[in-house]
Amino acid sequence: MVALVTPMYKDGSVDFESLEKLIEFHIQFKTDAIVTMGTTGESATLDMTEHCEVVRFVVKKVNKRIPVIAGTGANSTSEAIQLTACAKEAGVDACLLVTPYYNKPTQEGLFLHYKKIAEIVDIPQILYNVPGRTAVDMLPETVIRLSKIKNIIGVKEATGEVERVALIKAGVDDRFDLYTGDDSSAVEFILAGGHGGISVTANIVPQQMHEVYQAALAGDAERAQELDRPLRAIHRDIFIESNPIPVKWALVKMGLIKEGIRLPLTPLSTACQPIVLKALKDADIQVK
Question: Is 61 one of the catalytic residues?
């Protein structure tokens, strides 16, 4: 699944024409599902009206060809409920809800936050744990506790800690899926029992990532590692500055989107551009 960027013009407004082109690009090159309005989609700087407009647009243009998942998390429980309700109304297949950032809730607070959203909005929901961005870590025991709620169907675990797969799987049933949010450890995560991932790298090389995941899901560790090897510099270097700064710059170089990102994020620094460019060229990505 791709953690899709939100293309923008230089003034920061959403570039819907490029967004449609990206959707077609991903469907053509075997992306299994689109995740819109997540961290990579700059959800934190789009207001609620824009957020819902982008979700509706993606659902309409995908037109049921592949699943669409909408990021609907917020650090306010009431706002997360509104965003989740909006996404349900738009027709998404599921929602992805990041842990409340900045206010650092307790584990009990996390449980009650997700429980309330799940009870109010009846749509499949995926938990999203990324403590490097949110300053709060949803522990495996909290994930297990939340997995008992019928419409909480999985977790995106973006710590890069592969050992969490076994810890979580020990306490959940077969209907609950574990997705990695860390491209660098994705192969190991899936080989350890994970079910897939939500990938930033897939913005750039969707078909290659699809093939990596398929090999790992089939248990073919050697093939998965072989396919992943040329992509490892991309996994690493598209986080050389805060996501999605480098991946948006890469997509501009590939001719897929225009230059545009919202403050407080800024374009990729001149010093980092050669590093990302080398990663692209080493993976045989055609750039301008």
Answer: no
In the block, tokens 């080493």 appear at 282
- Return d(Cα 256, Cα 253) in angstroms, integer: 8
- CATH T-level assignment (fold) for domain 2-230: TIM Barrel (3.20.20)
For the chain, what are the domain ranges?
A: 2-230
Chain centroid, CA 112 distance in Å: 23
- The yes-or-no answer on residue 150 being catalytic is no
User: Per-residue pLDDT tens for 71-124?
Assistant: 999 999 999 999 999 999 999 999 999 999 999 999 999 999 999 999 999 999
How much is the CA Rg of the chain, to the nearest whole Å?
Answer: 18
Catalytic residue among 61, 88, 101, 156: 156
pTM value > 0.90: yes
Q: Which of the residues 128, 169, 213, 248 is marked catalytic?
A: 128
Q: How far is CA 24 from CA 20, 124, 126, 222, in A?
A: 6, 25, 25, 31
